[in-house]
Amino acid sequence: MSDNERSERYRAGMAVRRQVLGDAHVDRATAQMTEFDADFQTFITEGAWGSVWSRPGLTKRERSIVTIALLAALGQDEEVAMHVRATRNTGATKEDIREALLHVAVYAGVPAANHAFKIVKKTFADMEADPASRA
Question: Where does the record place the Carboxymuconolactone decarboxylase-like domain (predicted)?
Answer without folding.
Answer: 39-121
